[in-house]
Amino acid sequence: MTRWQAMSTSRDQRADDLGTQLRTAILEGEFAPGERLVEAELSRRFDETRAAVRQALIQLDGEGLVERERNRGAKVRAISLDEAIEITEARAVLEGLAAAKAARSATDDERERLRELIAGMREAVEDSDIVRYSTLTHAVHDAVREMARQDTVAKLLERLRYESVRYHFGVALLPGRPQVGLREHDELVEAIVAGEAEQAEKIMREHLMSVIDALRQLSNEDSRRLLPGGRYS
């Protein structure tokens, strides 16, 4: 590797690292939807060059988390409730496919991991611990996606998650929703563990359709009060 190649690789790595930090800050609510992301301020905050900040913002723009406007800079992208519903409709198709593939390819260790996650979800619901419940549902979806071993689907779902994440924590706050979500995830895991691919796909799609029904119970005014750092319902 030449000196210039090494320097380029180092710059790319720094921009990737900064992109990870910015992504986390946005998803955890440190930057609100619509908030301006000023390069000079971000450079000082993260002790990085303006060039690294600019490259990181381009990366997040590609993920749908940030909007870049000519001569106006960048801002955190605000997703409407209607968009969140459309995104969840797309997720239903992709995650249904992932669930079917997971049912066919899951190892014994992966099946046991799913059982452990469901046990944790059950405890969280019994304890009325919404944050833990939401975190564990997120983990179930991630585990299913990984078990599917389908890189294209995984990449598409990761972007969709970034774009609609703040709405799904609001769904988890709806009365009775954790109990419904627990039952749906329990049925999903049973189908995957049993190797029933068609049933797993059907249950996953039905689960996300029920999420859409719950999203429709949220008004746009309610959703604007949610932190962006929510998790899957």
Automatic annotation (TrEMBL):
InterPro entries: GntR_C, TF_FadR/GntR_C, Tscrpt_reg_HTH_GntR, WH-like_DNA-bd_sf, WH_DNA-bd_sf. It comes from the Bacteria. Residues 12-79 form the HTH gntR-type domain. Signal peptide: none annotated. The keyword Transcription applies. GO terms for molecular function: DNA binding; DNA-binding transcription factor activity. Keywords: DNA-binding, Transcription, Transcription regulation. PROSITE patterns: HTH_GNTR. This is GntR family transcriptional regulator. The lineage of its organism: Bacteria, Bacillati, Actinomycetota, Nitriliruptoria, Egibacterales.
